[in-house]
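Table S2 (continued). Query chain:
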Amino acid sequence: MSDPVLLEIDGGIALVTLNRPDQLNALSYELIDRLMAVLDFIETEAEARVVILTGAGERAFSAGADIHQFAKSVERGGNAAIRDFVSRGQAMTSRLEAFRKPIIAAVNGLAFGGGCEITEAVHLAIASKRATFAKSEIKLGMPPTFGGTQRLPRLAGRKRALELLLTGSPVPAERALEIGLVNMVVPHQQLSAAARELAGRIMVHSELALGSIITAVTRGLNMSIGEGLQVESEQFAALVPTSDLRRGLAAWIDARRPGGDGDT
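Corresponding output:
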């Protein structure tokens, strides 16, 4: 059996590939567990600075949950379905959202159900013009369960989110861009290059600062502005004694001395 999640680290980029192309990269329990283990490894791997997450094959990023597997959990009752499916999926998207290294989704095809929820949870997303998004859970007679009822309204606004959630209708990449689900849309052949270019623009900055920004934004979204500002202050305070901040300040000051380039 092939590995359901592939990992390749090169040049500071950890390329993570959902690898069930014959099943449209459906999120089986085994795939989710393997993805969590891969994230655990990347978290402490110094050579991995930025993560690019994509799907294997030409058809799908991920078409969502493995319905055959999920249906068996439902047959065993609510407790089993919550334990096996809901809790596992929510843990995955929460892990992606709070991960302190930047994660860029390179959405190469269908992103339905859980695949759309992964896109919602990661920090940044680039979509191929071939990509299509849908909140398809309503067609199964259920709400999204990997965080889609909570994250999508925060990204797109309540009414636009409810339109997707209540109809299950697919939306093209351009519409996903309009509502804030992705950062940019590129021709399919340029998807990998665009994701790597964005990763490169991020990697030039302090890894500690990147993690602090992600933590402050992720936590602050669920707080009042006052509480969020306190988190921001805490993240800054943690950076004050670090060499990253001192080097950054020294470089900025040096650039403004006579003969410096003057760029921030």
